[in-house]
Specification:
Blueprint (H helix, E strand, L loop, with lengths): L17 H5 L20 H12 L8 H12 L6 H9 L2 H11 L15 H8 L1 H19 L4 H23 L8 H6 L3 H9 L1 H14 L3 H9 L3 H11 L4 H6 L15 H16 L7 H14 L8 H17 L1 H4 L18 H16 L4 H15 L4 E8 L4 E8 L4 H8 L1 E2 L6 H8 L3 E3 L5 H6 L2 H8 L6 E9 L2 E10 L8 H20 L12
Antiparallel strand pairs: 1-2, 1-6, 2-3, 4-5, 5-6
Helix pairs in contact: 3-7, 5-7, 6-7, 7-8, 8-15, 8-17, 10-11, 10-13, 11-12, 16-17, 19-20, 19-25, 20-25
């Protein structure tokens, strides 16, 4: 959020690739006939143009058809479980996606066999949960099918992130906040998405006005379109008969910062959606103090809505984003590195890195042992990254401890490995917090007061000080929602901290580990420790 108006969030002008925004992928292009009309004095002009383009017949499946398919599910609030199940079962792709998701770690596993039918999912998770999940998947598929530019892909993933945060809030509050909260959060930027998709030329005009005039995003949109993005999204949702509670929740809020909120149950979802929208727009900062400051201001602004502090909401949004990233395969997402890593100083040799990944994938396909797979994996990381030490630890069931099994970079690997073992238990300290919250944690400076308060004393005494560790990262590995392993890396003051591209590669290695652990489920892990 920075110093900008809270509504002035999104893609900055200098980050927009105009050619990419307008360019359509081969095979999915939509050539719209005629230009869009707008009149700042009459919002109905632009609304009519956008609806006409949504209902156009240029595409094989019009946008309005897809929205109607979503709405069919959303409007089944009072239908029987059988009626809802039949609607889902009529769509084979949707049925498959729902069952894949409920059997993933987004949800608990209720049996070794998993959930095999929609009816069983409704009995175990509830009819409303499955209805909202199906609607959310339809929205996601609708956006994914049209995400033919990086801008639209970013908006698609952001909508999924908001939905995941909403679900996380529901879980932590002990039950649903209100009807279809996660769906409302997902659709919160519908108006802006529609303009970027259907009228990219006008979208760019709004971005230019926003930057050159120093305006908020909504003010710039109203100046050019005659209505704000939020108003456009609501009007389109009403036009397609979306449930009133969802349309109401998409309406932005206005209030004085610091006031204690007294919200009626009908308004709660609306304020929660606004909170989630702003929370997900907090940028990833260069240092944690900036992030905590932004989160603290947001918590103060919505004081009385949620009983969360700044650190809690940051952990909440990180947990949600980590879930979206870790289960990309389940949702059919292919994460793309948006920044080139060809000249990345954090990677020694990109060619060697890609070759190493190929060797790990080959080991998986050839059915090699998990020991061989993990050996190739950690060797590649050690050869291609500038980390001082890299460890892959495995959870030992008998003692419920995280035990280092593969170590690279330590001068005394046996001593280092012994010092790095720890028990898994509900306790303060970031190693257990990473497991409890299911998030990655990066400590950029072990000497900072804030960091020292969170780092366990055993780590500072046995690792950080003796080995001159400036910063470190921990990446828990879950299979079927159970902690099974952890990746640890560290660096000293002579080495730069990992950037986003390096972290993305680590997440890719973790995905390979999860695949290996899944393929070898039920087999005993080799006893030997590789150091």
């Amino acid at each position: 959020m920075g110093n900008r108006d809270s509504s002035h969030t999104g893609i900055d002008l200098d980050l927009i690739c105009i050619e990419d925004l307008i360019k359509k992928d081969e095979g999915v292009s939509e050539k719209f006939q005629g230009s869009m009309r707008s009149d700042p004095r009459d919002f109905r002009v632009y609304l009519s143009s956008i609806l006409k383009r949504m209902q156009g017949r240029e595409a094989l499946l019009t946008f309005s058809q897809q929205i109607n398919n979503v709405n069919q599910i959303l409007n089944m609030n009072y239908s029987s479980a059988g009626d809802i199940a039949r609607v889902i079962l009529n769509d084979l792709s949707l049925t498959t996606q729902v069952l894949k998701l409920v059997n993933s770690s987004f949800y608990r596993h209720f049996s070794n066999k998993g959930i095999s039918t929609i009816s069983e999912a409704m009995i175990i998770l509830g009819t409303d949960e499955i209805r909202d999940l199906a609607a959310g998947l339809k929205i996601f598929e609708m956006m994914k099918s049209r995400a033919n530019s990086q801008l639209l892909k970013d908006k698609m993933l952001k909508s999924l992130h908001r939905s995941a945060v909403a679900r996380q809030i529901e879980r932590e509050r002990g039950g649903p906040a209100s009807d279809a909260f996660s769906i409302s959060a997902m659709l919160y930027e519908l108006g802006e998405y529609l303009v970027a998709l259907l009228d990219p030329d006008t979208y760019i005009k709004v971005e230019v006005a926003l930057e050159e005039g120093g305006l908020s995003r909504e003010t710039a949109a109203k100046m050019i379109l005659g209505l704000t993005y939020f108003e456009l999204g609501q009007m389109v949702a009403l036009k397609f008969n979306f449930p009133r509670n969802i349309v109401q929740a998409m309406r932005p809020v206005k209030f004085t910062a610091g006031q204690s909120l007294k919200i009626s149950p009908k308004e709660e979802s609306r304020y929660l959606c606004a909170f989630v929208y702003e929370l997900c727009n907090i940028p990833a900062p260069e240092n944690e103090d900036i992030s905590l400051d932004a989160a603290g201001k947001l918590v103060d602004k919505y004081h009385g809505l949620l009983d969360f502090d700044a650190r809690h909401v940051l952990a909440l949004t990180c947990t949600a984003l980590d879930r979206v990233t870790r289960y990309a395969d389940t949702l059919g997402i292919k994460p793309v590195l948006t920044t080139s890593v060809e000249n990345n100083l954090e990677i020694k040799n990109k060619g060697d890195l890609d070759l190493g990944i190929s060797r790990v994938e080959a080991a998986l396909n050839e059915g090699l042992s998990i020991h061989e797979i993990f050996t190739r994996l950690i060797d590649t990381m050690a050869q291609c990254f500038y980390f001082n030490r890299i460890i892959i630890s495995i959870r030992k069931k008998e003692t419920n401890a995280m035990v280092p099994r593969f170590v690279r970079g330590a001068k005394r690997p046996d001593k280092f490995a012994k010092a790095m073992g720890f028990r898994i238990e509900p306790a303060s300290g970031i190693f257990n917090n990473a497991i409890d919250w299911e998030i990655d944690i990066i400590v950029k400076d072990t000497k900072k007061e804030f960091s020292r308060q969170q780092i366990p004393s055993w780590y500072m005494e046995k690792i950080a000080r003796p080995f001159l560790v400036k910063g470190f990262g921990i990446f828990p590995v879950f299979v079927d929602d159970k902690i099974v392993s952890m990746i640890y890396v560290d660096w000293d003051k002579k080495t730069s901290e990992p950037d986003q591209n390096t972290l993305a590669y680590i997440q890719r290695f973790r995905a390979l580990m999860i695949k290996a652990l899944t393929l070898h489920a039920g087999k005993a892990f080799p006893i030997r420790t590789l150091i």
